[in-house]
Amino acid sequence: MPTNVNPTVRRRRLGQELRRLRELKGMTAEEVAERLLVSQSKISRLENGRRSISQRDVRDLCGVYEVEDHRIVDSLMQMAKDSRQQGWWHAFGDIPYSVYIGLETDAESLRVYEPQVVPGLLQTRSYAEALINGALPEAPPGDIDKRVSVRARRQDRITDPEHPLRLWAVIDESALRRMVGSKQVMIEQLEQLVELSLLPHVTVQVLPFEMGAHPGINGQYAILEFPDAADSSVVYIEGVTSDLYLEKAHDVQRYSVMYEHLRAQALNVEQTRQFITEIVKEYTRLSHG
């Protein structure tokens, strides 16, 4: 698959365009579903980009919306074709968060708040293995290996020499204190965290316990932004059995304001490096004791 074709992003753009055409026609999703003899949920899934869109779906919808410009129809049909290609992550089999990976792969910047663990893009392999083993105690070894490999592949965005992901991570102190794997695993992980924070496109801030209650108290979330103005920002909230994607402007704005408060309450970049280094010293003393 050409590297400039991301099926997840193509589905999302196509869905947004189909929604725009429906709204121009003044039709509700229920009305469209009734015309095509399909469920309203199918129309909603097509428009939010959460399922593949066939060229037949595009043809039928363009017919309902009375799109007469063949160039528009052809463009949408090509997008549908592209959206059915496979991204690099499909080589690893069934990945439960493949939609997120597709968005992350195409994102220009990512702001993430993590209250419990080190963000996936900044994890060492040993930390990731121990973390996934602990989170999925009943998963077979092969599944653990696959998830770790996918996580490692995702990290290529951080080291990409031409188009690195702009990452801003606010991490709660509890993520640094929670011993995942062993003391040595934590030492290596925290040292890597400091090292990666030195990259010009990576910013790491720690939110210490002493700050008390804060806007992120309800849990982890990430905000993804894209280079193309046609792709709206997305708030991603990870769940146990399903994930939540928020794309409405007022939702993204609300989470963005929350993130600004988190950044303001967290230690600055240099204070964060010193803070992490002190915790590394604590783990080192404990390992020698």
TrEMBL record:
Q: Which domain of life is it from?
A: Bacteria
What PROSITE patterns does this protein's entry cite?
HTH_CROC1 (PS50943)
Q: Which residues form the HTH cro/C1-type domain?
A: 18-73
Where are its TM segments located? none
Q: Which SUPFAM superfamilies match?
A: lambda repressor-like DNA-binding domains
The protein in question is named Helix-turn-helix domain-containing protein
The scientific name of the source species is: Streptomyces pulveraceus
